[in-house]
Amino acid sequence: MISFVVGRNMGHLGRCISISEKLHQMNLPIQVFAFKESHGYLLDNLQNHIPLNPYKSRKFEDGKQTELLIHDWRSEVTAFRIEGKVDLNTKIVTIYHSDFSLHRNDSPEMREYKQKIQKTANHSNIFLHMNLFPPERSDTSLNCIYIPVPLITRDISMPPEEVKNKLKLQADESFILVQMGGGLGPSRYQQIVKWYEQINALAGRYRFVVAGQLQEEDFQFDKRIIKAPLFPNGKNLVNAASLVISKPGMGILGDCISTGTPLLFLPADDAEREQKIGMLRKILNSDMGTIKEPEEIVTKIEQALAKKNVFQENFSKIPTNGAEVASKIIETAYRIPLSELPKRREELLRLTPFSSYGNKS
What we know:
361 residues; alpha/beta; 7-stranded parallel sheet; 12 strands
């Protein structure tokens, strides 16, 4: 059995859905463990094809039947073997993103964040690390099999016209999507209300659609702003939008890259989100995709709408077939005994499309 333990955030849930569906299509035994608050959302996507279980780290049920354990992103999972919650021969696969290399100019918060990534990876057998650009092969000093993979995103499953119909918009009517994540857990974006107030003030100037959340914010929106339901596949909503304004996050970044939708990130409230802003800045080679202060929001919106082609041109250079690549790696690892994994490292590395890590095609 393959077990997938997933966190609360929308980006993590989206990657879990995408990979679980691929593994199910490969006829592999897959089950998902998730916090109960996200079960409704997951059930809308996984339906009855993939078993869904409540996740409780203190009592990981069915752990002894798990031969390969995937997590995105629950650092406590890597201790399950020594805690006796899974068999000693269970293989652990960690999925994550972001730069974890330590630099002299890192803030104390950034250094702590990167060290947590390294620690979690070092207690895994395989670390599937999402990369925006082809990485240079180097000694990562990690005690695991490090495999870079492209962005993991979902497929579009609804045309823009149908999305707009659900929003009660005309097929030719454009809108700006405002996205603040799932709204759950300790990593909930801390500046939601501040930026909702800014959006409210511009309701007469732009057509805004606010994306639904797992836990809605108690905020009184201007009646001209559309509150979207929680779409089972949020990428459909992104694909129909002319522009996205969002808290920094990997899930929304991947959706915008894969659909070519211009993106404006709001200010970061922690080190992890600061890295997402850095990623977008690197892709665009400018700060065109970031809003730093409320006073510049109109200027940034107008610039992004006018330079949609710049976003699309740069986004088109980023590979987004990570779900397919990761699923193939997981399938191969599932069939290899834990004791044999280190000897089969190069075989697994050949499954990544990045030539610096083994694939020479």
